[in-house]
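Reading a protein record of the kind used here takes little practice once its layout is understood. Each number in the token line that follows is a code from a learned vocabulary of backbone shapes. One such record is shown here in full, so that the layout can be seen directly:
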Amino acid sequence: MLSKRNLSNVIKWPLGLLAVMWLVFIVDYYLFGGLLSAYYGLHTRQLAGVPGIVLSPLFHGGWGHIVSNSIPFVSLTGLLVFFYPRLWPRVLASLWLGTGVLVWVLGRSVTHIGASGVVYALAAFLAFSGFFRRDFRAIAVSLLVLFYYGGMIVGILPGQEGISWESHLLGLIMGVLGAYTYRGELEDHEIATRRKKTAREKQQRKKEPFLDPDAFAKTKKERDNEAFWTRLKELSERERLER
């Protein structure tokens, strides 16, 4: 059941993070002419690029760049908060930082900026989590994400000018790893479902007898039959002796 607190988080956190992203973009674009993104972007395998692991998703190269990332970021973050109310803070932090670390280690020697890596990580987490968790609601979310964002797979192909395809690819990998890692971290409805299943199985085991109900009855019948034939044999033997 959707609580007021969870509904508030679904609205507050995705829009709040997006507002921060837009604020950073406007300040950098209009006041600093892109110098902040050039300085604090993710510079691979350089000590100066370490802050970019956290900050690079906040920077964007232009209006088209930030607009293209805004809608999927808000929608996917909203789905994460809605369907994983207990788990989402750790998942989002893990995907955000994990994608940055992978790009810092494995990416090309260029400055990587933009939230697209996090977007790919969120999409992959939501798409694969349902299959790893084997939960009906999570599977429904997985199918929904695959339906609407399946075309994003094209973005992992190399050779696209001005696009950090490594962020896309490594974000996708990070999302799959996150889905597998957190598969055992259950939400409230999953815990309730498992408890009901366990209780139902215990009830069924109580109702099922250890032995066939007729097992002892059949044994008694067999003993009675044996006693009957034994008695009959004794009577026959006695009659023969008397003759």
